[in-house]
Amino acid sequence: MRTTPTLHHLLALMLACSTSNATTAQSIGAGANCSAFICNDGELRTWGNNSYGQLGDSTIQAHSTGTPVYGSLSVREVAGGLGHTVALATDSTVWCWGRNDFGALGNGTTDWSTIPVQVTGLDNVVAIAAGDMFSVALRADGTAWAWGQNNYGQLGIGSTGSGSLVPVQVGITDLVAIAAGFGNLLAIASDGTVWGYGLNDRGQLGAGPGAPTICSTPVQALGIDSVVALSSSRYAHTVALCADGSVWTWGYNLFGQLGDGTTTERNTPAPVPGLSNMSAIAQQNGFGHTLAVRNDGTLWAWGYNLKGQLGLGSNNNNILVPTQVTSIADVVAVSCGESHTIALKSDGTAWAWGNNNSGQLGDGTILDKSTPVAVNGICIDDTGVPGLRGNTHALHAYPNPNDGHFALRWTSLPPHASATVHNALGAVVIELSPAQLVGADPIDLSQRPNGTYHIRVSTPSRAIAAPVMIAR
Predict the structure, then answer these.
(1) How far apart are CA 470 and CA 319, in angstroms?
(2) Does residue 414 sit in the same domain as residue 272?
(3) What is the pLDDT of residues 344-383, one digit of tens each?
(4) Which domain holds residue 111?
(5) pTM attached to this predicted model
(6) Same domain? 149 vs 45
(7) Cβ atoms of residues 355 and 309 within 8 Å
(8) Is the residue at 20 inside a domain?
(9) For the chain, how many structural domains are there in total?
(10) Sheet (strand 369-374) strand order
(11) Is 143 in contact with 173 (CB distance < 8 Å)?
(12) CA-to-CA distance for 153 and 92, rounded, in angstroms?
């Protein structure tokens, strides 16, 4: 009945440029304790926790500002699991990296990877989702494919127990959107109904009081249709956006994440009181918090708030009903990590708040924030317009991070180039000499404070940029 819009399409459609000092992105995503954005040309940058290599930069070092993913992968969508990341490339293939105990990377092994590896046998993919230890992809023909852990039947193959190291087809077809949670898979059928597999111990599949706690065969969420977007959390609650702009929730509710003014869990969908004319829901909902965007660009939040992840300026109370995040406006998309949140504004800038113990807010610090802060870093296109990468993979600072002393390394130095180094506010802090530009002489920023700086190399026809971090 409906092929657009879906949650994933809503995110992928966000394409904007800005001259702001904050980072410019076309799409955002969040894993448990990490974050990501996609530049307008498809470059993916990640930051935050990297214990399993989930940032994909070939290391296991955490970063507090955006860092390019290893290689030249061009991406249009990203999703984060507990310790792995899934990316949909612009050529409709799927790539994964990070933790792989149960085969969530889909490459036929259980080997962890700190760089992107291609998922075996998948093409013509239009959407992706990441659960805790499994992954899902939706193909253009309406079939869904899943791989990884299957202890709750979340792969949708009619059984529990044995998982799969490569994609296997989910039992239901004619699908237009997918979502994944801790141990459950949900999907929207072309008629707007919602179907699910896997763990249902808190009613997160929405199938009513008679449904089993583990569902290896599909069950339908009761009393809801005309669904256009769907989100599942790591803590057993589900959120849906309907075509009329209403938001519906069901499942666990210990922290008020269902937004109905109570802490009573519910095994069937019901509309969230007071929400209308909504245009987007969080790509993934966190440990126990929920966010949604109204069509006027206002952002609304409710649920768990221990780390300030609701963005309301405090962290001492859970919020049981939708409350406006007044410190940010013009929001077009939002995504939740375990206890942090990242939002994309209509000017293309990315903002984050909540837990920041691994640098997942991207502001160059590891301090929690209870109101939105701008994500640091910048992408620049071939004409110098913020928002596009240009050719950052050709330029690197080494070492990075450093103590203020570093040099440039090139894959290929463009002719007739000049270079400057900028601070996080965009101000020029140094103009590089020809010897510094080619990497023959070191660059000395040892008198500058710690933080992220940006090297900008300009030619008559293009601009190239790369980040460098001073961390003593």
Answers:
(1) 38
(2) no
(3) 988 888 899 999 999 999 998 999 999 999 998 656 443 3
(4) 7-374
(5) 0.79
(6) yes
(7) yes
(8) yes
(9) 2
(10) 331-336, 340-345, 350-354, 369-374
(11) yes
(12) 26
